[in-house]
Amino acid sequence: MIERILKIGIISWIILLLIWYLGALQYDTYFLPSPLETLDSLALLAGNGTLGADIVASIGRSLRGWGLGILFAVPLGLLIGNFKHVKYLVEPILTFFRFVPAIALTTLFLMWFGVGDESKVMLIFYATFFPIMVNTIAGVASVDKSLIEAAACMGAGRVRTFFTVIVPSAVPYIFTGMRLGLSSSILCVIAAEMLVGSDGLGYLINSSKLYYRTDWAFAGIVTLAVIGFLADRLLQLFGYKALKRFGVRKA
Question: What is the rounded CA–CA span in Å between residue 47 and residue 144?
Fold first, then answer.
């Protein structure tokens, strides 16, 4: 019974809220709003429509950038991992850019794609591309060589082996890359909205300082944490249900 309660995480949340509440008693609302004050701000922002609009804006940008990352990173990762000539040609350049953070490119992306959603989506795409690609390459490298040899002995050509052995075996790694890419997309969209946005949760958090409303910032942060938590859980559930036969397991 105790183990089940611990697994659900109720005790952890109670401890966190208690520490937060006790800490808020030592300071005023401007420095550290209490959980109840944050909840009141959430209700206020939700009631006037601000929170809902910001959530929709942030999620939309995050999903578009993440989707582009998956669309380009998975095929390229499979090609790099499976064909050494592609690896020799492409991997050095990609490894070089992998260590350039997306935020460092904000100014360039603003000049190239404008101040609208396009620049933010491309920043998110850049941030999500590399974790997905690297995990895909690792997935190809982890394929059991005996399976490839068995497929060759049964008369399977290289293309058929690629699609029937290598790709299915790499799915768990690709899925892990997708999870990492999802977290990167949420982190990046908030940073982009804080720097150049006019709406979204990042803009809400950043603009709260203009009105001396720390409780609004906390409301945005709590909302962001809940969205990230639920998104990861839903993705894990999808992976377990749809990709279980490929070896994807519950975390």
Answer: 55
Query: How far is 42 from 35, CA to CA, in rounded Å?
Result: 10
Q: Alpha-carbon distance 145 to 164, whole Å?
A: 14
Instruction: Give the separation between CA 32 and CA 36, rounded to whole angstroms.
Output: 12
pLDDT at residue 27 greater than cutoff 80: yes
Q: Which two tokens stand for residue 85?
A: 């000539």
Question: Rounded to whole angstroms, how far apart are CA atoms 11 and 2?
Answer: 10
Token pair 């490298």: residue = 141
pLDDT at 6: 58
DSSP state of 105: G
Q: The tokens 């709590």 sit on which residue?
A: 222
| In 142-200, alpha helices (H) | 145-153, 158-161, 167-196
Both tokens of 183, joined, read 């977290």
pTM listed for this prediction:
0.88
Q: What are phi and psi of 48, to 5 degrees?
A: -90, 5
Length of the chain: 251
